[in-house]
Write a structure and sequence with these properties.
The chain has two domains: 157 residues, Up-down Bundle (Ferritin); 324 residues, 3-Layer(aba) Sandwich (Rossmann fold). It is 42% helix and 12% strand.
Length: 507
């Protein structure tokens, strides 16, 4: 998993996997859900302390500056760290039995000194179930991160360690992990296809730990833009996940308006019209309280079923799009063809209103939290702007891309991401019509989609490959077959539910 060298715009640092293994050994009897807050809180504390000490050293060389003047730090967007919360002091007390309370006091002190962090930091290190000897060892371990001064920080070492640990905790937690983490390759693909810029308003109404924002900022910076120039808006209903997001953004110097609360029932950004919406909503959520939102203004294309929030999310995204905005998001494949409780009507209205721009079928096993086949949807309100493909939808079947990293997880390479993203970028810009590639991509007219009863499954439109690849590794071929079988099971469940829905008046 780890590589011996870094890559300029992502990838693993050489010590990340080793660091994770060492930290995981110190977990003891804590499960991953609790332990992640212990570890990530310490990584965040180390980050702000490192940044503080670097600024303090510069001020110490300036005869006219006061290294203990709080305003000197805030003016440079550096968090002020009170004396009792500085990392050298905490590391010096790591072996004391009172280290839990010392950390809790340090976190509270930092929150009091920095209003932006109010209510964000974990303050539960003194609890009896947390072994204080192992906590001290964990502090020593975290102390090894970020060594090397400004050069290491310029490579975003602590931020990338934080992101790597988020992914590993998501894997360790399984289904629960999907509530706060979207695999980095999926986020990268969304961002590479949409290409946000520094003038963008970027919105994620179910933002988890903030991966969409982090990757968007990374993309903007890699393409010559300024970090922090884009306007970031988000909302997260889970309080502990909201804290993870705030720390994830702060550790990278990203400021955003991240609200807490249920997006459907307490939309904190009602007046926002975003240039880009990026999201990975909870799949097939049946507990979204739809019975209390039957006549909501967001349901312009049809009232979503109470039993499934998928098309409620889709319409929420559209509601918050600017006139020329684009939305890219993840949905379970059932939404491509489902007919339950009026989903087919909403999907038909989406197509007929020419809002659907592109659908991408993803490989299986990319997500830690589910084996349900998923797709990327791209929606746009751009009806009058430079959209040369009006009246058509681009379909991409990417299910055969990627490679297995272990028996249960799959990854996409840079080449895989570029292959999909470049086709869509050409499609959007209209510089050249992407050549139809049988079995991979094809543009279909709305008339053709209409004949297929508005089903949006890419495999129905892209056809099959003309040449079958020989010599494919057994593991890769087996993974593809398993993915196809899972999709067929999903389609079978959909058909059974549809039949029951149609027969319910006769039973």
């Amino acid at each position: 998993m780890a590589r011996s060298s870094t890559r300029k715009h992502g990838g693993d640092l050489g010590f990340e996997a080793t660091l994770w293994q060492a930290a995981d050994k110190l977990r003891g009897n804590l499960d991953a859900a609790d332990y992640k807050h212990v570890v990530l809180g310490l990584i965040f504390l180390k980050y702000i302390s490192d940044a503080f000490e670097e600024k303090r050293a510069k001020l110490g060389k300036d005869r006219e500056a006061d290294p203990e003047d709080r305003d000197e730090y805030l003016a440079d967007n550096v968090f002020w760290v009170p004396t009792d919360a500085r990392w050298p002091k905490l590391q010096g007390e790591a072996k004391q039995p009172t280290i839990g309370k010392t950390l809790d006091d340090a976190m509270k002190s930092i929150e009091d000194a920095n209003p932006r962090l109010k209510g964000v930091l974990p303050k539960d290190y003194a609890r009896p179930t947390l072994d204080k000897t192992r906590l001290g060892e964990l502090i020593d371990l975290v102390s090894t991160i970020g060594l090397g001064g400004a050069e290491s920080r310029s490579h975003d070492v602590l931020g990338r360690v934080y992101e790597y640990f988020l992914g590993r905790f998501a894997s360790a937690e399984g289904k629960r992990g999907g509530q706060f983490y979207t695999p980095r390759v999926v986020v990268r693909l969304l961002v590479e296809m949409l290409e946000p810029n520094e003038r963008s308003r970027i919105y994620d109404p179910c933002c988890g730990s903030g991966g969409m924002f982090v990757q968007s900022e990374r993309f903007i910076e890699a393409h010559g833009g300024r970090r922090g120039a884009a306007a970031i808006f988000g909302q997260e209903s889970n309080p502990t996940t909201w804290r993870l997001c705030e720390m994830n953004l702060a550790i990278r110097g990203i400021e955003g308006n991240i609200a807490r609360g249920d997006t459907f029932h307490d939309d904190q950004h009602k007046d926002l019209r975003a240039d880009f919406v990026l999201a990975n909503p909870h799949f097939n959520d049946s507990d979204w309280g739809g019975d209390r939102l039957r006549k909501d203004a967001r349901w312009e294309l049809g009232t979503p079923p109470v039993s499934n929030a998928n098309f409620a999310w889709v319409q929420h995204f559209i509601y918050h799009l600017a006139p020329n905005g684009y939305a890219g998001f993840v949905l379970a494949n059932g939404s491509l063809s489902g007919t339950q409780s009026g989903e087919d009507v909403i999907r038909r209205n989406l197509v007929e209103a020419e809002l659907v721009d592109c659908i991408v079928s993803l490989p299986t096993q990319l997500f830690y939290s589910t084996q349900i086949p998923v797709s990327l949807w791209f929606i746009t309100r751009n009806r009058r702007g430079p959209r040369p493909r009006l009246g058509e939808v681009l379909f991409i079947d990417a299910r055969k891309l990627g490679h297995l990293t272990d028996r249960t997880h799959r990854d996409l390479s840079d080449a895989d991401i570029e292959r999909v993203a470049s086709v869509y970028r050409e499609w959007r810009r209209g510089t050249a019509r992407p050549a139809d590639a049988p079995g991979f991509c094809r543009g279909a007219t709305i008339e053709e989609i209409r004949k297929n009863e508005h089903v949006l499954t890419p495999a129905r439109y892209v056809g099959t490959e003309e040449v079958i690849e020989e010599g494919e590794p057994f593991e890769s071929r087996m993974s593809q077959l398993a993915g196809a079988l899972a999709e067929q099971f999903d389609e079978s469940d959909r058909l059974q539910a549809d039949i029951r829905e149609r027969l319910k008046f006769f039973l």
